[in-house]
Design goal:
Elements (H helix, E strand, L loop, with lengths): L18 H8 L6 H35 L7 E5 L6 H8 L12 H8 L5 E9 L3 E8 L2 E7 L1 E6 L4 E4 L10 E3 L3 H6 L1 H20 L7 E6 L5 E7 L2 E8 L3 H17 L4 E5 L10 E4 L5
Parallel strand pairs: 1-3, 4-7, 7-8, 10-11
Antiparallel strand pairs: 2-3, 4-5, 5-6, 8-9, 9-10, 11-12
């Protein structure tokens, strides 16, 4: 008896491509290096051309504006003038009516103005179509200081100008500082000068006549001694180093008490470390 017929069995095997071919299809395409180079060069070139065009246009605008009569300087306005004169500043700075506003070198004109010893700072600005505004800050003279020659001192303790005829003459004179000390150790000398200015300010603030304070001496021990005009005579007042305002108020009381008694002091010492609330006075000789 013959064996029964059996149908063949077919098995499906999935298709697997060759690894090398699959990797070649999956890999991204590599861009050409020359393509990026030419794109960057084209962009840089366009940027350079645009920048050059802007610069050329700007130069052309400035050239036209520098020749246009509408931008001619018709007025120069000064603000803050007290001691320095307008003609002197105009001559020093080179500013003049009739020049072109665009052709003006503001930085150079500012530097030339600030060479004037009275000028602490200057600021120049254009006001179109034809005006220049000049804002000045001048030194404010507060005293004079003896440093070989006599110099004017501002409220910040800066000796900014050698005293000359026509300068304010009713300022107290600070003495006791040498030219050598000022040159050798400017910071220390300026600090001592500033202490003298504190006495000048306190003298005024306490109601004493500013014009009566003729001299402030900076002593070797860092203390201060003032010389005040009292009629036709001069009164010496020793303040020391500390508590200037308190000692000034005590000075007012001492003077008032002496006036009640019909007496006058040629020297008053307000610096008594052992008894700070005491004051001693050397009386003037009584006239017969």
């Amino acid at each position: 008896m013959s064996e029964a017929f059996k149908e063949p069995v077919f098995t499906s095997i999935p298709f697997r491509p060759e690894p090398a071919a699959a990797l070649r299809r999956a890999a991204p395409r590599r861009a050409s290096p020359w393509k990026g180079f030419f794109a960057g060069a084209l962009l840089s070139g366009a940027t350079m051309i645009a920048s050059a065009a802007v610069i050329l246009c700007g130069w052309e605008v400035v050239r036209i504006a520098s020749a246009a009569s509408v931008f001619t300087i018709r007025e120069i306005r000064f603000h803050g003038l007290v001691h320095v004169s307008e003609p002197d500043l105009l001559a020093a700075s080179g500013l003049r009516v009739g020049a072109n506003l665009f052709a003006l070198d503001l930085s150079a004109a500012t530097r030339r103005m600030e060479r004037d010893p009275w000028v602490a700072a200057a600021r120049l600005s254009r006001r179109f179509p034809g005006t220049v505004d000049v804002e000045l800050v001048e030194h404010r003279p507060r005293a004079q200081v003896q440093l070989g020659a006599v110099y004017l001192v501002d409220d910040l303790g800066r000796a900014f100008k050698r005293a000359a005829p026509g300068d304010p003459a009713d300022l107290p004179l600070v003495t006791g500082l040498s030219r050598d000390e000022w040159t050798r150790d400017r910071a220390a000398a300026q600090l001592r000068l500033y202490r003298a200015l504190q006495l000048v300010d306190a003298w005024r603030d306490e109601g004493l006549a500013p014009a009566s304070l003729s001299q402030v001496r900076v002593d070797d021990d860092a203390g201060l001694t003032a010389f005040s005009r009292e009629g036709t005579s001069v009164q010496e007042i020793r303040f020391g180093e500390h508590d200037l305002r308190m000692k000034l108020r005590r000075l007012v009381k001492v003077r008032a008490a002496l006036a009640v008694r019909g007496e006058r002091a040629v020297r008053i010492d307000l610096d008594n470390p052992a008894r700070p609330d005491w004051a001693s006075a050397q009386l003037a000789a009584q006239e017969r």
